[in-house]
């Protein structure tokens, strides 16, 4: 019966977060290891009760997670800072998917007391926002972890005159043949104290005794003011000496400190120097299938990334090479796959799934304690938040139990539990949109042809144009998805927002296809390298007329989910394409 008594018993012999749930004529019994185990057992009971056959069926369920820490990282520093309503929606979805941790990746989007000039136009999170969010997370069994980058990716600080001299290269640097503004702190004691103070401001507002100091991608290290030290000591020594200084005050205070392992894992000589409480997090954002397709073929795309400094041998191995290295050295580590939402507009769901499976398999094989799914916002975070819903559901499922969920029907899970779409259409739309990048027939790392068409980057050019028949197939898919969205009926609180933002994503993707068609029309052979400026003037003028209505809707959709600060910066990401079209229109 639905009102049968529930008998609850703590059982210390169960695995952490584990439970056993039994139902029958005598009522319901729940054995649980800890508070999270009890929470998950009762949520399972709620789901069983919702079934029409609950009273006629007896259940005996034993369950526990593969990874004790199952985290989600949301980038709030590539212009898009979520509203409280959006954060509350994320918490709801994360709790449903049994995540235990949330991190909001920070660079300049926290209201630091002494750095108003850095964040004043960003609509940053405040101390009050963090306290509110921390309480909301704690109420559903999620730990809010402070996350603040401290070494690379410091552009937003270093662009200001009073911080410029903190840079490794105050004048900027070259990468991929493109001049970049300064992004890396010089590894000095003063800069370590500066970065530590930034971390402290956010960390003091949350109750967690864990934090993430980032420290990834210090591209300029050894190429500026630290060049002499790096020449004498080696880049690994200089890097880890600075990171150790960043971690020291937190480790001494009893915190667990996460840091990205991209530089660290390239230096085996550092493996025996990881202090207790420090956790290197191994990130990898493309799945083995795509990596094999791009790298094994020695494609122009692979050569582009090689010029940017990517270690293709390590990339080709996915999580395994670095996971094995750390495991054999006895260094506890976490795995961090990606949601593949960024640089895509519509997502890359097949790559996200492959990437997460690789992470979960490698993590289990090497006793990794944490699985941190990341959702980044490169090029102004133009993708709608709902594009990441499917990867989040799948990431929560496979980090809880890989073998039970590797074949999860993501579309059905979205429609039934996240979007509440009785028509069962929205989940399928998200999956089909997320496969469009493959249908274009131009395999790319860390992005899709649609995004590269909208946000051309001379350092990472589109290596070839899709064939006309591929463009036709994708256009048909987009049209069918648009029709299905019109018939969809998502009853979730943000259902109407999801429909609107996906309609807009489809319109942007259709525009990107037309840009690719325009370039193909004046390129001799389909599949050849596109000329960014080679567009017929009349076609360029027609494309230009379509931009302003698209931007107006982009602004409207943004403000349904996100704060206004950063919106203008994000919109400017389209300027390079606009300039190319303007030049072509007047040729």
TrEMBL record:
Q: Name one GO molecular function term.
A: beta-N-acetylhexosaminidase activity
Output the GO biological process annotations, alphabetical, semicolon-separated. Answer: carbohydrate metabolic process; glycosaminoglycan metabolic process
Q: Which Gene3D superfamilies does the UniProt record give?
A: Chitobiase/beta-hexosaminidase domain 2-like, Glycosidases
Query: Which EC class is the enzyme in?
Result: hydrolase
The keyword Endoplasmic reticulum appears for this protein:
no
Q: Name one GO cellular component term.
A: membrane
Domain Beta-hexosaminidase bacterial type N-terminal positions: 9-63
Q: What catalytic reaction does the record list? A: Hydrolysis of terminal non-reducing N-acetyl-D-hexosamine residues in N-acetyl-beta-D-hexosaminides
Domain of life the protein comes from: Bacteria
Q: What is its EC number?
A: 3.2.1.52
Keywords on record: Glycosidase, Hydrolase
Q: What is this protein called?
A: beta-N-acetylhexosaminidase
Organism source for this protein? Streptomyces parvus
Q: Lineage from the top down? A: Bacteria, Bacillati, Actinomycetota, Actinomycetes, Kitasatosporales
């Amino acid at each position: 019966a639905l009102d049968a008594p529930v008998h609850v018993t703590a059982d210390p012999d169960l695995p952490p977060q584990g439970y056993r749930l039994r139902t029958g004529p005598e009522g319901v019994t729940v054995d649980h290891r800890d508070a999270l185990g009890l929470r998950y057992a009762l949520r399972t009971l709620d789901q069983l009760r919702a079934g029409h056959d609950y009273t006629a069926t007896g259940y005996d369920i034993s369950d526990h997670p593969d990874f004790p820490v199952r985290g989600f990282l949301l980038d709030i520093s590539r212009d898009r800072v979520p509203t409280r309503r959006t954060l509350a929606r994320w918490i709801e979805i994360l709790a449903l998917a049994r995540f235990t941790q949330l991190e909001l990746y920070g660079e300049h989007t926290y209201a630091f007391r002494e750095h108003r000039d850095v964040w004043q136009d960003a609509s940053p999170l405040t101390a009050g926002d963090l306290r509110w969010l921390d309480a909301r997370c704690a109420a559903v069994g999620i730990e809010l972890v402070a996350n603040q980058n401290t070494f690379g990716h410091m552009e937003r600080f270093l662009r200001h005159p009073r911080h410029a001299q903190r840079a490794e290269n105050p004048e900027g640097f070259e990468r991929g043949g493109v001049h970049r503004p300064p992004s890396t702190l010089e590894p000095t004691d003063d800069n370590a104290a500066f970065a530590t103070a930034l971390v402290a401001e956010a960390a003091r507002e949350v109750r967690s005794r864990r934090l993430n100091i980032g420290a990834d991608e210090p591209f300029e290290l050894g190429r500026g003011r630290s060049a002499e030290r790096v020449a004498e000591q080696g880049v690994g020594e200089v890097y880890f000496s600075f990171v150790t200084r960043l971690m020291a005050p937190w480790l001494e205070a009893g915190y667990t400190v996460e840091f990205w392992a991209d530089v660290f894992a390239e230096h085996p000589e550092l493996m025996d120097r990881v202090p207790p409480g420090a956790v290197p997090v191994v990130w990898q954002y493309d799945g083995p299938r795509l990596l094999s397709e791009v790298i094994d073929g020695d494609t122009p795309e692979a050569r582009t990334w090689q010029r940017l400094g990517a270690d293709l041998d390590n990339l080709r191995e996915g999580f395994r090479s670095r996971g094995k290295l750390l495991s054999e050295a006895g260094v506890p580590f976490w795995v961090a796959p990606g949601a593949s939402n960024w640089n895509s507009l519509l997502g890359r769901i097949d790559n996200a799934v492959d990437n997460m499976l690789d992470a979960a398999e490698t993590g289990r094989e090497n006793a990794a304690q944490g699985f941190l799914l990341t959702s980044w916002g490169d090029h102004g975070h133009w993708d709608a938040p709902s594009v990441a819903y499917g990867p989040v559901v799948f990431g929560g499922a496979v980090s809880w139990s890989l073998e039970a969920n590797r074949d999860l029907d993501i579309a059905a899970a979205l429609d039934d539990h996240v979007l509440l779409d009785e028509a069962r259409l929205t989940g399928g739309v998200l999956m089909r949109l997320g496969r469009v990048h493959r249908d274009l027939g131009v395999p790319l790392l860390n992005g899709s042809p649609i995004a590269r068409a909208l946000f051309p980057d001379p350092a990472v050019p589109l290596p070839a144009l899709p064939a006309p028949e591929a463009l036709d197939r994708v256009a048909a898919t987009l049209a069918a998805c648009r029709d299905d969205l019109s018939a969809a009926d998502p009853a979730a609180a943000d259902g109407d927002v999801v429909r609107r933002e996906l309609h807009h994503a489809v319109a942007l993707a259709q525009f990107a296809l037309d840009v690719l068609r325009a370039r193909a029309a004046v390129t001799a052979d389909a599949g050849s390298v596109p000329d960014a400026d080679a567009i017929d003037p009349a076609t360029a003028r027609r494309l230009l007329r379509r931009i302003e209505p698209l931007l107006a809707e982009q602004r409207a959709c943004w403000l349904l989910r996100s704060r206004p600060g950063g919106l203008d910066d994000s919109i400017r990401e389209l300027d390079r394409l606009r300039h190319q079209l303007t030049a072509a229109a007047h040729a």
